[in-house]
Specification:
Elements (H helix, E strand, L loop, with lengths): L7 H18 L5 H12 L5 H4 L2 H8 L12 E5 L14 E5 H7 L4 H5 L9 H17 L6 H6 L9 H7 L4
Antiparallel strand pairs: 1-2
Helix pairs in contact: 1-2, 1-7, 4-7
Bound molecules: zinc ion (ZN).
């Protein structure tokens, strides 16, 4: 869907709304539901943090690859790669099998999966990533800057550039 957004906040709320639709309706493309949820988020009637409790899910779901569900040869995987400035904290870690970890490489989940037909970012991974992105943009006071969004051509696959900006010595 070639939808454009004025700010990072709107883009992230739209992605949250799709995530919620996936959980509630079993379909992230249930656009009637997505639109209603998106409008609630924008109106402050729903907050992302009230909905997503991904760290708990991680413990409940236990030992399975967050991307493919495999249970063998699991490793810790950084959702936003360290090489891209992602933090080395539990918020940024999931369990992944060796094959998924290697295939993903130094890309974030959007960069890895958006080009692959029929693939979407798994719920657990997307929840963690959106939370990290929201906090990073909030910290830099860039959630509502349409200027920043336009200048940097922020889309799903470029969202994580905020981490490079945060960790780099110069900009
Ligand atoms: Zn896997």
């Amino acid at each position: 869907m070639a939808r454009t957004f004025a700010t990072v906040r709107d883009l992230l709320y739209w992605e949250y709304a799709k995530l919620i639709a996936g959980s509630a309706m079993g379909d992230r493309a249930a656009y009637g539901f997505v639109t209603v949820t998106y409008n609630k988020l924008r109106a402050g009637k729903l907050t992302p943090s009230a909905i997503v409790t991904e760290n708990k899910r991680l413990i409940v779901e236990g030992e399975a690859c967050a991307y493919c569900g495999a249970t063998a040869k699991l490793e810790w995987e950084h959702v936003i790669p360290l090489a891209a400035g992602g933090p080395d904290t539990i918020d940024n870690l999931v369990r992944a099998c060796r094959a998924c970890n290697a295939a993903k490489g130094a890309r974030d989940p959007y960069q890895w999966l958006l080009d692959q037909p029929g693939k979407e970012v798994p719920r657990l991974v997307l929840g963690k990533m959106l939370k990290l992105l929201f906090e990073a943009y909030e910290k830099r006071d860039l959630l509502d800057s349409s200027e920043f969004m336009k200048q940097n051509d922020i889309r799903r696959r470029t969202l994580a550039m905020v981490f490079a900006r945060m960790s780099g010595a110069s900009e």
